[in-house]
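(Protein data)
===
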Amino acid sequence: MNLRSQIVHSIIVTAVVAIACAVLPRAQDPLSAAKDLYASAAYEDALSTLSRIEGDAAPPEVSRQIEEYRAFCLYALGRTREAESVAEAMIRKQPLGRLDAADASPRLESMFSDVRKRLLPSLIREQFRAARAAIDQKSFSSAEPQLTEAKAMILEAGKLGVKDEGLGDLTVLVDGFLELIQTTAERRPAPEAEAIVASNTAAAPAPSRTSALAPPSAPARQQAAASQTLVPASRPAAAAESATAYTIDDEGVTPPITIQQRMPPMPPQLQAIARAVHARGLLDLVIDETGRVVDARIRQSLNASFDPLVLRSARDWKYRPAVKDGVPVRFLKTILLVP
């Protein structure tokens, strides 16, 4: 063999070795093989290859890619319902997860977006219920990231144009919980709450009549305001006397719409004191099928002198009643009172 032939032979051998080195790892990687099959429109073969991968034993990012390409192949084969089912399972695991595959076409992005839009309202409520349960168990370290995730999901729902009248109230509840966790010195459990800010003007006279559900005694209210202890309860006490009352985390229920919910004025001195100690009050209302407030209870005192004024004002508040399946229903509403 002459020198030229030896050089050519050496080049060929080197090229073959290089190709083999490049192909071998890919041949040993079923996910990469499945991606190549998908790219070449061999969707059935790609599905078969993906089915041989043990996704549960793979790292989370690899498992997600396996499911992504499974959905891609099913969608390309016209098996749309199966593709949506895979997408649904993925979104339930990671509600805000995004497609990171280069092969994600606009149609696939749209399909995943539609599934996410459909699932988000129930996922938000699930996350909110989990956070509230964590708060009831005094597990604030667990509740805070859950509430943060719920807030992010609510923002995503807004971007997607999700139509759900309960999300507005849930937004207030989630923000209220986060504020309670972050500002309460004792970090005790807190129930769901809608925030109302007390006005900074002269106070009205003390009421001569009390609510049917009497508030805690003055010493107890003063102690609660001073220590900022939050009362743990998975369902407020007022609900025990109204078993059929729905709450904000019941799906399919449109919450009451406020017609008149005017807070009594708070004297500047009381407001300054309440703000200095980061005081927060909690008020439970039962709103009947006509939109009237039929029960009111101070669950946590904002201020011992101010609480009776809130109860008296609450008797005159008016709402458009909550609705379920087109029928007005009784609703338990909890309000966070903020100075």
Q: What stands out?
A: The two ends are 96 Å apart (CA to CA). The first helix runs from residue 3 to 27.
